[in-house]
């Protein structure tokens, strides 16, 4: 029994051990299965991640769709264009390239990120006139070729390794899209084109500008642009620039004329140098070892230069002689009025400073701040600088009358001549006036046409005043000096209006002076009538157009007030009356020393009081036009007193400064400075690739730089296109006087 029980227990134990072992085996099998299942799940997850990555690079993941794409579409114009390209009619290559840009941006490829970064988006400052969303032209170039910069490998950098070296897989170029906005959330000054948004875009070269315009119109038309909703911009696509010079540039008439003028002038200058060399040659006329062909050319030129009239013409272009004439400084003669040199020089530089600020307005991104500076007391000397044109009119009127009445021989000839002879003399005087002013003036007009055609194609800025178009259409107005008789918005080089006025005043003054030689009392009555008429005319026009002193109103009324010869003749008449008074009433103008010194200081006080009289610009029309008329009248009278005092050899410390000899040099360049400074300033501003910031300190630095550039340019142009013709005019006058004496 015990044995049986032992066997039963043993069998039970063995069975239990078997069960336990089976359980253990089953447990091990389950663990293996679970581990295998986990491995399979892990592999599946890895495969899914790889598929998601692959899908991200091709079809974009949903997370990017939810966060990045809507944001980029609404804020970035370049990305928005890639979104609307699918439904557009652009060429297949352009469409493929824009899609590739889109994929590159979403996958954060370095070249595509540079494209995104180089393209413009809205910066801050929109309310105050920030319409230049230009991005970076240089950064777009960096997509095409690596930036030339060397970085040490000794330092760890967080930047992406391909940020500098990775290039776009196709050609890209920088272009500018121009939109007109109608946002009520930007201060509107009403000075030309401040409502034009400039958007710089880094685009595939395969997309034409017309296709990009089409895409942009579709993009803004769908309301996808976030800024349109936030600031109620309601943009309208105007046009696009590829910033490339058009092929027609070299076919322009102005280009051919300018090249011809330069070549002819250079040839005449070389001939003038040859003439000097001929004078230094020995009388034997040796060939100096020249080759046969050169020797024949030398002899031919030498024989031509033997002609007296040709030698006189060529000698007008003598560069060393003209250079010496520009820089000559000498003692003033008793017949000269030295303060005129200082007035001309200071006013020419002063007007140039105004033009630096004026042309900055078209590139500055805080326009309101710039205008606010102009209305501050400290900057009145800049904002009121256009008044200084009256200084030139006063001096011109004075000199025209003074020189005519002082020339007793000519005055007597006019009295004795019949109307036909006087008509010939009048024509001769007009010819010499045109000969002195015309060549430089016409060369600058051609250069204006050429420069504005160039910047119209290549500048990132919208050029509102397309002088190239105006000059091509209305060149004959400038040729006849009548451009100021038309709308100031249609002028070729609108700063030349004063030259047209001066030529018209010159003709009018000569008519009156010829009449004065025969009928002095009638002429005095006519001059007094003209003086009262211009004052009454100005009042009438000012009241009719509701004239105001604010900048927007002053610009809008430029044709009626600013450039009108009927308004601007006032200082010319006052200058002429002053010259007549000085010659006819010189003994009565004597006064005591104390009274004279007080008069000098009073003249200076009136001068600056008129400059600062417009510090309040919110006046009513009647008060504004009264201040305008009385201010210009007082201003011109103060200048007249300075001229009279200097003519009599009197003065105070500050007038002695204006009479300094150094101003003789600048005075000779004042005509060239006046003509050239707007063109030079506009050209250099247009070459910048980023908008400027109105800052007083930097404005001073920029002004100094422009002063140097304008000064050097004026010397060059005066040597080539002003002094030679002034010399020629003098030669012709001397010849005519000699013929008159012989007769």
UniProtKB/TrEMBL annotation:
Superkingdom of the source species: Eukaryota
Pfam families reported in the protein's UniProt record: Acyl_transf_3 (PF01757), NRF (PF20146)
InterPro entries: Acyl_transf_3_dom (IPR002656), Nose-resist-to-fluoxetine_N (IPR006621), O2_lipid_transport_reg (IPR052728)
Name of the gene encoding the protein in the UniProt record: Dmoj\GI12735
GO molecular function: acyltransferase activity, transferring groups other than amino-acyl groups
Residue stretches making up the Nose resistant-to-fluoxetine protein N-terminal domain: 91-234
UniProt signal peptide: 1-22
Transmembrane domains' residue ranges: 257-278, 346-364, 384-405, 434-455, 495-517, 526-545, 565-585, 597-615, 621-644, 665-684, 696-721
Species for this entry: Drosophila mojavensis (Fruit fly)
Oxidoreductase keyword on record: no
Protein name according to UniProt: Nose resistant-to-fluoxetine protein N-terminal domain-containing protein
Keyword list, A-Z: Acyltransferase, Membrane, Signal, Transferase, Transmembrane, Transmembrane helix
């Amino acid at each position: 029994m015990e044995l049986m029980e032992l066997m039963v227990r043993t069998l039970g134990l063995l069975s239990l051990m078997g069960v336990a072992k089976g359980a253990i085996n089953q447990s091990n099998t389950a663990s293996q299965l679970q581990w295998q299942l986990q491995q399979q799940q892990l592999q599946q997850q890895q495969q899914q991640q790889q598929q998601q990555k692959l899908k991200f690079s091709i079809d974009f993941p949903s997370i990017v769709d939810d966060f990045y794409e809507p944001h980029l579409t609404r804020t970035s114009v370049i990305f928005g264009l890639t979104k609307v390209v699918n439904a557009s009619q652009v060429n297949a290559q352009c469409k493929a390239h824009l899609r590739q840009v889109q994929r590159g941006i979403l996958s954060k490829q370095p070249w595509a990120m540079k494209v995104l970064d180089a393209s413009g988006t809205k910066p801050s400052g929109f309310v105050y006139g920030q319409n230049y969303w230009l991005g970076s032209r240089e950064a777009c170039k960096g997509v095409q070729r690596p930036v030339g910069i060397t970085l040490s490998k000794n330092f760890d950098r967080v930047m992406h390794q391909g940020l500098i070296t990775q290039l776009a897989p196709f050609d890209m170029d920088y272009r500018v899209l121009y939109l007109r906005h109608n946002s009520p959330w930007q201060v509107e000054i009403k000075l030309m084109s401040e409502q034009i948004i400039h958007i710089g875009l880094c685009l595939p070269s395969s997309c034409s500008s017309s296709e990009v315009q089409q895409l942009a119109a579709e993009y803004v038309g769908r309301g996808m642009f976030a800024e349109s909703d936030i600031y109620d911009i309601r943009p309208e696509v105007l046009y696009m620039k590829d910033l490339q010079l058009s092929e027609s540039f070299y076919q322009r008439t102005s280009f051919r004329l300018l090249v011809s003028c330069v070549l002819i002038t250079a040839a005449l200058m070389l001939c003038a140098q040859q003439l000097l060399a001929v004078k230094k040659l020995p009388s034997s006329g040796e060939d100096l070892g020249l080759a046969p062909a050169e020797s024949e050319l030398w002899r031919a030129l030498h024989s031509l230069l033997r002609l007296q009239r040709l030698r006189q013409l060529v000698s007008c272009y003598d560069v060393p002689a003209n250079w010496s004439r520009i820089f000559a400084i000498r003692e003033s003669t008793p017949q000269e009025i030295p303060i005129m040199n200082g007035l001309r020089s200071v006013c020419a530089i002063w007007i140039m400073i105004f033009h630096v600020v004026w042309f900055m307005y078209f590139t500055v991104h805080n326009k309101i701040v710039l205008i606010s500076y102009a209305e501050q007391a400290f900057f009145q000397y800049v904002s009121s600088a256009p008044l200084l044109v009256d200084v030139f009119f006063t001096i011109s009127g004075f000199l025209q009358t003074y020189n005519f009445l002082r020339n007793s021989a000519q005055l007597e000839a006019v009295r004795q001549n019949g109307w036909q002879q006087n008509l010939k003399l009048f024509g001769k005087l007009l010819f010499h006036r045109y000969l002195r002013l015309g060549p430089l003036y016409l060369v600058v007009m051609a250069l204006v046409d050429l420069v504005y055609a160039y910047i119209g194609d290549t500048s990132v800025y919208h050029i509102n005043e397309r002088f190239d178009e105006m000059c091509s259409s209305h060149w004959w107005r400038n040729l006849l000096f009548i451009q100021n008789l038309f709308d100031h918005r249609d002028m070729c080089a609108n700063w030349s209006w004063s030259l047209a006025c001066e030529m018209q005043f010159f003709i009018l003054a000569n008519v009156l002076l010829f009449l004065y030689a025969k009928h002095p009392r009638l002429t005095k009555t006519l001059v007094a009538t003209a003086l009262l008429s211009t004052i009454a005319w100005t009042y009438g026009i000012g009241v009719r157009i509701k004239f105001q002193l604010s900048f927007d109103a002053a610009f809008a009324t430029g044709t009626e007030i600013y450039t009108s010869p009927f308004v601007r003749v006032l200082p010319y008449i006052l200058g002429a009356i002053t010259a007549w008074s000085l010659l006819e009433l010189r003994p009565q103008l004597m006064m005591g020393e104390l009274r004279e010194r007080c008069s000098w200081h009073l003249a200076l006080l009136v001068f600056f009081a008129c400059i600062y009289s417009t510090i309040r610009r919110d006046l009513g029309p009647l008060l504004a036009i009264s201040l305008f008329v009385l201010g210009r009248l007082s201003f011109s009278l103060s200048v007249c007193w300075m001229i009279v005092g200097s003519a009599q050899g009197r003065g105070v410390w500050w007038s002695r400064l204006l009479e300094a000899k150094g101003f003789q040099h600048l005075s000779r360049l004042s005509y060239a400075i006046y003509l050239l400074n707007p063109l030079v300033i506009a050209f250099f501003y247009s070459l910048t690739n980023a908008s400027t910031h109105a800052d007083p300190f930097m404005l001073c630095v920029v002004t100094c730089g422009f002063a140097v550039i304008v000064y050097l340019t004026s010397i060059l142009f005066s040597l080539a296109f002003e002094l030679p013709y002034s010399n020629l005019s003098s030669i012709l006058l001397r010849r005519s006087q000699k013929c008159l004496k012989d007769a």
